[in-house]
Amino acid sequence: MDFNLLFFISFILFFIGLFGILLQNNLLIILLCLELIIIACAINFIFISKSLTDSTGQIFVLLLFAISATEIAIGLGLLIRIYQLNFLSNSTNILSFNKFRY
């Protein structure tokens, strides 16, 4: 199996997620881009683990998936709360929303 191609795919996924976080204003899109970054890291861990014939990387992937699940749970909770507080415009744009400030 060609590991260079898989690392390149992981690299592309990481930078798509990074540019999505930097360029988007919608909270749902930002959460999806965070997931792309986490998946790219998981792909790297799996293939480095496979190339070194060590199972430590696969254990780290399980930890990444647990962190990803909690991140999505918290993010979707914030998304629902933003949608509830901003129900007149039906928007989840994070730039126009500042009701979480004290």
Describe the fold and architecture:
The chain contains three helices and no strands. The protein has helices at 3-23, 27-52, 56-85. The model has no long low-confidence stretch (mean pLDDT 83). The chain has one domain (3-85): Helix Hairpins (Orthogonal Bundle). The radius of gyration is 17 Å and the shape is elongated. The chain is mostly helical. The chain starts with a helix and ends in a 17-residue tail after the last helix.
What is the N-to-C order of secondary-structure elements (H for helix, E for strand)?
HHH
Oligomer: single chain
Q: What is the percent of helical residues? A: over 70%
Give the radius of gyration. Answer: 17 Å
Fraction of residues in β-strands? under 5%
The CATH architecture category equals Orthogonal Bundle
The mean pLDDT is: 83
Principal-axes shape call? elongated
Count structural domains: 1
The CATH class turns out to be Mainly Alpha
Helix count equals: 3
Low-confidence sequence ranges = none
Largest sheet: none
CATH topology, which one?
Helix Hairpins
Q: Kindly state the number of beta strands.
A: 0
Distance between the termini: 54 Å
Protein structure class: mainly alpha
What's this, in brief?
This protein is mainly α. It has 3 helices and no strands.
Features:
102 residues; mainly alpha; Helix Hairpins; 3 helices
Write the layout of secondary structure elements.
Elements: H1 3-23, H2 27-52, H3 56-85
